Amino acid sequence: MSDILRHATDRSDGMAHSKTKRCIVRLTQIKLAGFKSFVDPVSFHVPGQLVGVVGPNGCGKSNIMDATRWVLGESRASELRGESMHDVIFNGSGNRKPAARASVELVFDNNEGRAAGQWSQYAEISVRRVLTRDGGSSYFINNQAVRRRDVQDIFMGTGLGPRAYAIIGQGMIARIIEAKPEELRVFLEEAAGVSKYKERRRETENRLNDTRENLTRLEDIMRELNGQVERLEAQAVVAQEYRDLQAAAQDKLHFLWLLRLDEALAEQNKITAKINLAQNELEEQIAKLRHAESELEHKRALHYELSDAVHTAQAALYEANTEVSRFEAEIKYILDGRARVQAQIEQTKTQLSQWQDRAQQLDDDAQNLAAEKEEASEQQAVQQEQLAMASEGVPALEAQHREALQAMQASHASYVQVEQKVARAADEQRNADRQLGALTMRRERLNMEKVAPGNADARELNQLEFQLSDEQARAEAAQAALFDVEETLPAAQTALQSARDAAAAEQSRIAQLNARFEALTQLQEKVQSQGQLTPWLEKHNLATRQRLWQKVHIEAGWESALEAVLAERMGALELSRIDWVKNFFNDAPPSRLSFYAAPTGAAAQNNVAGLTPLMQMVKVHDATLQSVLPQWLAQVYVADTLESAYAVREQLPDNGVLVTPQGHQLGRHSIRFYVADSEQAGMLARAQEIENIQVQLRAQDMLADEAGDELSRLQHQVDQLTQQQTSARATVQSTTARLHELQMQVQKVRLASEQLMARHAQIDDELAEIAMHEEELLAQKQEAQVLFDEGDANLMAQQELHQRAQEAYDALDKKLSDERNALRDIENQMRDATYRVQNLTQRISDIEYNQQSCAQQIEFLNNAHEEHLMQLEEFADVASNDGLQQALALRVEREDALAQARTRADALTFELREADEMRMTVERGLEPQREAIMQLQLAEQAARLNQEQFAEQLKEAEVDLAALRIKLAETMSDGAKASALQGELTRLNNQINALGAVNLAALDELNVATERQGFLNAQSNDLVEAMTTLEDAIRKIDKESGDLLQGTFDAVNKNFGELFPELFGGGDAKLVMTGEDILDSGMQVMAHPPGKRNSTIHLLSGGEKALTATALVFALFRLNPAPFCLLDEVDAPLDDANTERFANLVKKMSDQTQFLFISHNKITMEMANQLVGVTMQEQGVSRVVAVDMESALEMAGL
Fold first, then answer.
1. Predicted TM-score of the model (pTM)
2. Which has the least CB within 10 A, 2, 24, 75, 675?
3. Quick count: other Cβ atoms within 10 Å of Cβ 437?
4. Rounded to 5 degrees, what are φ and ψ at 575?
């Protein structure tokens, strides 16, 4: 409302200051691109006050004027010499493609800052308009996108605009001359600056009408709201009582929860103390158990250490046996070597004896050797070959002999090691068997404990869990039902409120339609009953007859057209015969009245093709009118707009007329603008609206009934949902209590089951440990068995290998002895042969030499004998058995140590078994204590669940416990019990249920409705105040506009009277108002050229009309100089004398107004300060060129 008041005040106050500031800007530059024939961007400056545009016909000069008109907001293509707005875009030529858009920009100098509005701060203002082929039209001021209205506001009241008097194009002089008085008044209003005030008055009237409609709607809403407030007040009383009872019940319930919470907390603390005492006792027993287990583990550790000692003793024994075996092998080797050396000594002795005998024999046979020399030489060669062959095999055989000896010793050592491993594996098997037996006994004892009765608890737990699951499902179902109801109830209440609002809206709509119907009916009756005509009609018994408008129907929107055409005949009365009107010749009606009767013959209808007759839109059922109206509406056709009517006016017959929905009538050579100016105007439209309202009322009644039925259905649904909510809450409470009880039982059984499962888990852990230990022992046993089997098999294999090595060694030793003996035999034979040859040779040559050789041989044998004796002495030294005796003693000592370690291990095994039995005894004694603690924990958990339940309920209710305790102490006595609170709570719930269905939103709705009522009252007062202000503003605008227009009329009339004689060289002219009210009357030009008595401008010649119109335009300029004026060949109908007077006047006016004119006249060109040339060197394309003033004058002279 404040906006309306401020707007109306601004409109009225702004008028007083509108005259003090005019938009005096100067055009400095024009830019065109793609506009009509100016396809290329063109820009030319207009620095002077008188700028002429020259060029041949058809080169595009007038397009500059069209561009200026177009950029200032022209929206009619016909004013731009086109059929559609797209015609302003360059459409192409023989060598050019069509342009995509058209752009025109005007640049103004605003150094004095006198432009209107926010643009006054800019020193230069550019106004640009762009049109694209897709229909997009944009306006820009200083490259800022603006509206068309923003551009028009800058130049409003300055004479500039799309169709203002400052732009005089071709034919505009003729239009001014032929203009009706009402049309001429438009130029006067533009000069006075009233046009923008009329626009503001129209806006103010629109706001006033809107305000009246808003006030009417507001009154209907307030009537409905008052009834709604009364209903809500009654519902609010019940809702408040319900809330009070609900709050009291909520407090009692919170008290009950707090008492139960305290009781559960006390019970929990008491049970917790008992649990702590029992757990202390249990921990003492557990400490004893841990001590027994520690002792058991200590003994197990000692047992493991003794087992390791037994294994160590066994390993030491195996080492001693190995050492003994080694000494026995060495002794055997020594004895064998000793026997071999003794044999060699004996052999050496034998050879020495032989060589001695041989020497003696050689001495004896020296004389016989010469004959045997040849034979001995041959034998020597053979023996040498045999010796070489025998010497080659002996070293390899000796190496084989050494290898066989080493292999025999190695096989003997392996045999001893395998024998030790077999013995060790057998001991490990016996130890693993003993430990496995102990673990088996322990596992059987644990399995017996695990199989103890526990299935009954499991079955009970399963049954309780099944019941709990079933109860939870019921609780969830109940909660879901409550949730659904509580979720559906607000929606239903909202829907109910919406239905109430809809029903109220329908009733409001019915009230509005009834009010509109009554208002229109009263207006119709008032119009018919008022005036001077009613007594006359009653006098002649014609008051009850229907008027013509009551019998006629026409398509919506064309009522004004029919009233404009029929005029006073809209209220015509039907007579059976037209002769009856003779009775009224001497008693004529006091106001306009028409009569009609059925014609004798039907008039022929010759409609024009392509035009729609107005009769086609009229519907009548009266026979007389069906014959009368075609005559009255003959040659009357319809057009949607004046533009479309103007376009097709040439198709009209001579007496034909085109009528628009607004009632304007356009003939081929005339136009009549329609304004409703009689009391009968609008009767037909009101009558048709009354009929439409009656139809709407019937439809609205049906909608109101449907809304009422829907309201009743929703009210019943809300009542049912409220009852379901109460029932669902009771179900949720009962299922919650049962669910809590089952949860307690399940928790108790589950705790016992968990403890049993914990013991079973402990037993499982012990069984798993036993199984793991058994697996380890079985693995050890299996490994020992594998070692034993492998050792046993290896023992036999090693024994066989040792035997084979021994046999191989013996065979090689025998073979080596044989080879050596054979070698020695060959050597001996070789020596014999050699010696024989030598002896024979020497004996032949020299007997002494043979003796020396024999002595050397004997010496060799003696040395060999000595070596053999030395070897024999060595074998004698090594062959002592001291090492063997020591090894045997060590083996006996280690066998004793092994026996002692096994004895200690057996004793410790017995102690270990006793400690394990003691631990089991202590562990079995823990079960009763654990059972007692379990029962206490169940009781504690039940108390804790109760505490958590009530604490959670209080938390969900967002209750402050401290404040609640204080309130409980103040309200209840110290001995208050939960049972008493439960009874009080039941009583309050019964009272709540007794209230029935309650609209809980009534209080909020009442507050909202009350606030809305106050707001609407304030709105109503504001609207009334706004209407008063707007009406005052309109009266003020009318008064000031009238005064301004009257002053402007007087000034223009004075200027016109002065300029007319100046242009004509005499005579006089004046402006005459055609009506009494300056705001509504037209303006007529009265001109008397010198020597003529013509009364109106229509009787003047063409040149006189042009000069008269020019005088009128310049009279307007003198009053309100426009920033610039465009003249398009205005001097065309003038002769030289008048042209010179016209040019002188333009020069005189150029002191205040900038002129841009198009002319072919030499006299007019001479007055220009600057000439702009327009050429069309390329077909269809205009260009701007610089013009030499002298050349232009010469062109004009040609």
1. 0.36
2. 2
3. 9
4. -120, 145
The per-residue pLDDT for range 515-533, each reduced to its tens digit, is 777 766 766 666 555 456 6
Question: Residue 944: which region, alpha, beta or left (left: phi > 0; alpha: psi -120 to 50)?
Answer: alpha
Question: Rounded distance, CA 430 to CA 311, Å?
Answer: 12
d(CA 846, CA 839): 9
Q: Which helix (H) or strand (E) element contains residue 110?
A: none
Query: Please, which residues bridge with residue 54 across strands?
Result: 1173
The structure tokens listed for 201 are 């008055």
Quick one: pLDDT at residue 19? 40
Binned at pLDDT 50, 70 and 90, residue 1000 comes out as low
**What pairs with residue 1073 in β-bridges?**
1083
- The DSSP line for 1075-1116 is SS-TTT--EEEEEE-TT----SGGGS-HHHHHHHHHHHHHHH
Hey, what are 261's tokens?
A: 């919470």
CA distance 302 to 300: 5
CB count, 10 Å around CB of 113?
Answer: 11
Torsions phi, psi for 1159 (to 5 deg): -160, 150
**CA 538, 539, 545, 546 torsion-angle sign:** negative
CA-to-CA dists, residue 942 to 466, 666, 728, 743, 748, angstroms? 20, 101, 27, 9, 8
Residue with the bigger pLDDT between 852 and 924: it is 924
Q: Which residues partner with 102 through β-bridges? A: 131
> Which pLDDT value is given to residue 972?
67
Q: Hunting for tokens 């519907």 — which residue is that? A: 619
**How far is the C-alpha of 437 from the C-alpha of 458, rounded, in Å?**
34
Burial class (CB in 10 A: 0-12, 13-18, 19+), 850: buried
Say yes or no to pLDDT of 917 above 80. no
d(CA 201, CA 7) in angstroms, rounded, equals: 11
Half-sphere exposure of residue 803: CA atoms within 13 angstroms, side-chain side? 6
Where does the pLDDT of residue 827 fall: very low under 50, low under 70, confident under 90, or very high at 90 and above? Answer: confident
